[in-house]
Automatic annotation (TrEMBL):
Residues 4-104 form the FAD-binding FR-type domain. It is an enzyme of class 1 (oxidoreductase). This is ferredoxin--NADP(+) reductase. GO terms for biological process: cellular response to oxidative stress; heme catabolic process. Belongs to the ferredoxin--NADP reductase type 1 family. Pfam families: FAD_binding_6, NAD_binding_1. PANTHER family: OXIDOREDUCTASE FAD/NAD(P)-BINDING DOMAIN PROTEIN, OXIDOREDUCTASE FAD_NAD(P)-BINDING DOMAIN PROTEIN.
């Protein structure tokens, strides 16, 4: 990998949510442009090798710094090292951003209701979208659905409320719907495809998944993405291709 493709950035803050989850911010070079929903490629020197991984940007395209939300995979080549990150450390950032999980991809149906369905760190691109006023101006109803295994993995809950207050002021159609799959006492604890098939997700959102009006984005665990896609297709929703259709997805592995 050619090192000239990267700039060297400084870590500004690190926040630990759980033993296997943390967020960090770093300096943003002026040349690094992105649209809400896109991902960066971040590099870390491990010995004398540059290890690079894709990371969705959490921050808004208008922020002066870059924020990311990371899993720790115990034997992962990248995150087993990244988990020790400290303020002042250096990270490599590829100069360009990537990805098509952006609202600009939707032409038909016209924007009306937006469903953002995440597992775990798949929340990241949706936090960026929600920190863009354009998202709130475009959609009458926005449902952020965030599925985790245990309550301790529910990161960003206070930030989500703050973002909704700040960016969604005067907007009456926002619902935040957490799902905790290993807690039978949680209001919603089934997997997303089940909650779609049995109508519980729509009940919690107070709105319908509709081929005529819904834009649905899925991000995170590939098995969740695949199974949820199928559940949505059963309801008549279609994959978004060349601007048309309801469903857009991003797999993290
Ligand atoms: C487009 C894109 C955007 C991504 N954005 C993010 C992000 O914002 N935050 C983030 O933490 N990761 C993200 N990832 C995953 C990330 O690139 C790495 O896979 C992750 O950092 C683990 O790297 P690793 O080398 O430690 O393990 P890897 O060798 O890359 O992965 C090992 C295994 O760990 C599991 N795994 C990998 N990533 C995750 C994850 N995020 N959550 C749960 N299990 C996982 C999978 O089972 C995978 O097979 C993204 C991936 C893609 C393709």
């Amino acid at each position: 990998m050619s090192i000239e493709k990267f700039s060297v950035e400084k870590v500004l803050s690190v926040h630990r949510w759980a033993h296997n989850l943390f967020s960090f911010t770093m300096t943003r070079p002026a040349h690094f442009k992105f649209t809400a929903g896109q991902f960066a490629r971040i590099g870390l020197m491990v010995g004398d090798e540059l290890v690079v991984r894709a990371y969705s940007v959490v921050s808004s395209p208008f922020d002066e710094t870059l924020e990311f939300f990371s899993i720790v995979v115990p034997d992962g080549a990248f995150t087993s090292n990244l988990q020790h990150l400290k303020v002042g450390d250096e990270l490599y950032l590829e100069k360009i951003s990537y990805g098509y999980l952006t609202l600009a991809r939707y032409q038909q149906p016209l924007p009306q209701d937006l469903w953002l369905l995440a597992t775990g760190t798949g929340l990241a691109p949706f936090l960026s979208m929600l920190q863009d006023f354009e998202t709130w101006n475009k959609y009458q109803q926005i449902n952020l659905v965030y599925s985790v295994r245990t309550a301790s993995e529910l990161a960003y809950v206070d930030r989500i409320q703050e973002i909704a207050k700040l960016f969604g002021e005067g907007h009456s159609g926002f619902r935040f719907i957490p799902i905790i799959t290993r807690d039978p006492n949680a209001a919603l604890h089934d997997r997303l495809p089940v909650l779609i098939a049995n109508g519980e997700l729509e009940k919690a959102a107070g709105s319908e998944l509709s081929p005529a009006s819904s834009h649905v984005m899925l991000c995170g665990n590939p098995q969740m993405v695949e199974d949820t896609k199928e559940a949505l297709k059963q309801r008549g929703l279609t994959m978004n291709r060349r601007g048309e259709g309801n469903i857009a997805v991003e797999n993290y592995w």
